[in-house]
UniProtKB/TrEMBL annotation, chains A, B:
Residues 52-361 form the AB hydrolase-1 domain. It comes from Caulobacter endophyticus. Pathway: Amino-acid biosynthesis; L-methionine biosynthesis via de novo pathway; O-acetyl-L-homoserine from L-homoserine: step 1/1. Pfam families: Abhydrolase_1. The keyword Transferase applies. Homodimer. GO terms for cellular component: cytoplasm. The gene is metXA. This is Homoserine O-acetyltransferase. It catalyses: L-homoserine + acetyl-CoA = O-acetyl-L-homoserine + CoA. Substrate binds at R227, D357. Belongs to the AB hydrolase superfamily. MetX family. GO terms for molecular function: homoserine O-acetyltransferase activity. It is an enzyme of class 2 (transferase).
Length: 385, 385
């Protein structure tokens, strides 16, 4: 840590950490953001050797509340199955960090934040972000938390993209990396679904060209439609069939456009509840960052090159059989590249009919895989348990 | 035909046929539509024995212009690959009929038509329709064309639903039936995608509660988003990847929300061109009819029961390996039911990476299957060729 020459300036437990005024974040686009704020939560504390820190990276609509109650929804943390007392990631042993990505809307600087230059919300004048930009801000946050190297960086879906970016950009700061239900680049179909969501938002006149916040409006209908479309991609066809099939909401059909089928009602609920906790412009910016993600591209189009400096990092890659958003073939592609780069990579495809969202749901085989991997990593790192 | 006691009142070639005033169409909902109009095209002419008529049923956004230029888009008929001189369905040998479904927007009575009771467009006061209602109107149209029995009823996707409904409701009027890329009921995922499209339309303030036509408005943005979402389901992931991958529109990224990727531009074009030829309320009504479709339901939940009276009908069922909208498992479900009902059913799963839309595209194996099936049907029916 001595070479970083930093004070531990970010408080334990969580809050919002503000970048020092003289350290703007330089983005891939070339733009700079000064006074960037990163909202985060921590659980547990750093051990004496500084070897027990774990960074958890959230997915598109996730946030820093990985293991604590969400302040808006009142729901438990989104990964309490894996993070908590007696879980594979345990604040009793680990210093757990989770931050809201930049561009997000749970406290980190994003398009809904106030642009100091105008005193108005940034809106569409906020610069376009990349997954690498998000990771760059996380690296500065862990500096501020006094963390030099991470025992593990862990994430699912977009979180797994950040994990790969960490391995490419900061391999010397990682001991291990866990990539769940993810991909090394967005496919044409991935981009297509995101574009539908963005068009749904931008079609809403309440979006006001992105300036809705300054004008006291909210593109709730457009954002709800975007969420509904995306939500279908998070579930497998068999899971939808098992959960809902053609079950009706009431006895008999309405012979109208009410939600006759339970699956319609479920989707409408997903859309309606999402707008209470998410910002439409953040949705545009984060989906754009995911679409732009193509880890091989800046490495001559060869993914293995991105991982060349990560030979000492222990990788764990997990996928789910019924995930059609980031199917197992994408994980295999990552594992092949890791192998070609000379990295150690454990890989498991987990049998599940729950689709992409399996990484957030009750999947004991996934828990077991992560438990085993974390135990082996801790042994190698010399952390007793 | 004598027992039907009908004049041939619908002109050859095509046009709009108006139901006699004393014959309202009674719908499954219980509603009646008087003076119903059905827009249709015919090709070729009925032979002396009346044995060469073929009805072609169109898909969700299709129309009666199966083998002739579309009046709005100027594009060739949507199935000229299969219908035309030297094709498996050939006006030189067959009397080909194709009608716009009721609820549609290409001339048949639908929500954009004028409600005689008010002198205004029906809008949402138009009654909810079913696939059976569409078929009932088609049966009345072929009466008016002087056709007693059909050599074949043929359709893909929603067209295939109508074919199955024909087999259930009018088996004695069919000699053969061809069901392509279809299903016997909408799955939860099918309903979910349609609901996203409907919500996108209804979220557009220009929809005006369905009364846009009377108010001189058009919910173009919502309808375009609906089309974009649906369009993704028509293509396979490999086809999207092959056609577009991550190819850019221009050199380099825009670092904004322009259509950077070719797949975005393609989808936007699909949305924009669709609104020029389709009515938003028709989209609501027809998707609803498809969601309501569950052929087994009125037959005690046993699909075979629906086909029991169709034992003399020769069936051909075709599916495509990469169709994830109506996957091969749905076709197999139909074939099992046909077999259980004692029907003769030819079945072929065709290797294609083009997804659901394969039935509209260049798939020589499909052409060959249909050619062979039609030849055998014609031999059995005693039509020389």
């Amino acid at each position: 840590m001595a070479d970083l020459d930093l004070d531990v300036s970010a408080p334990l437990g969580g809050g919002v950490w503000r970048f020092p005024a003289d350290r703007p974040l330089v983005l891939d686009s070339g733009a700079k953001i000064s006074g960037l704020e990163v909202a985060y939560q921590t659980y547990g504390s750093l051990n004496e050797n500084g070897t027990n820190a774990i960074l958890i990276c959230h997915a598109l609509t996730g946030d820093q509340y990985v293991a604590s109650t969400h302040p808006t929804t009142g729901k438990p943390g989104w990964w309490t199955r894996l993070v908590g007392p007696g879980k594979p990631i345990d604040p009793a042993r680990h210093f757990v960090i989770c931050s809201n990505v930049i561009g997000g809307c749970m406290g980190s600087t994003g398009p809904a934040s106030i642009d100091p230059a105008t005193g108005e919300p940034w809106g569409l004048s906020f610069p376009i972000l990349t997954i690498a930009d998000m990771v760059r801000a996380q690296a500065m946050l862990i500096d501020a938390l006094g963390v030099d190297t991470l025992l593990a960086v862990v994430g699912g879906s977009m979180g797994g993209m950040q994990v790969q970016q960490w391995a490419a950009d900061y391999p010397q700061r990682l001991f291990s990396a866990v990539i769940v239900a993810s991909a090394s680049r967005h496919s044409a179909q991935n981009i297509a679904f995101h574009e539908v969501g963005r068009q749904a938002i931008m079609a809403d006149p309440e979006w006001r060209g992105g300036a809705y916040a300054a004008q006291g409006a909210r593109p709730e209908k457009g954002l709800a439609v975007a969420r509904m479309a995306a939500h279908i991609t998070y579930l497998s066809e068999p899971a939808l069939q098992r959960k809902f099939g053609r079950e009706l909401q009431r006895d008999g059909l309405s012979w109208g456009f009410d939600a006759d089928f339970q699956v319609e009602s479920y989707l409408r609920h997903q859309g309606a509840s999402f707008v209470d906790r998410f910002d439409a412009n953040s949705y545009l910016y984060i989906t754009r960052a995911m679409d732009y993600f193509d880890l091989a591209a800046p490495h001559g189009g060869v993914l293995a090159n991105a991982f060349k400096a990560a030979r000492d990092v222990r990788f764990c890659v997990l996928s789910f059989t019924s995930d059609w958003l980031y199917p197992t073939s994408e994980s295999r592609h990552i594992v092949r590249a890791l192998t070609a780069a000379g990295c150690r990579a454990a890989f498991a495809e987990i049998d599940s009919d729950k689709g992409h969202d399996a990484f957030l749901l009750d999947e004991p085989v996934m828990d077991a895989a992560l438990t085993g991997f974390m135990a082996s990593v801790e042994r190698e790192r010399g952390i007793g348990r």
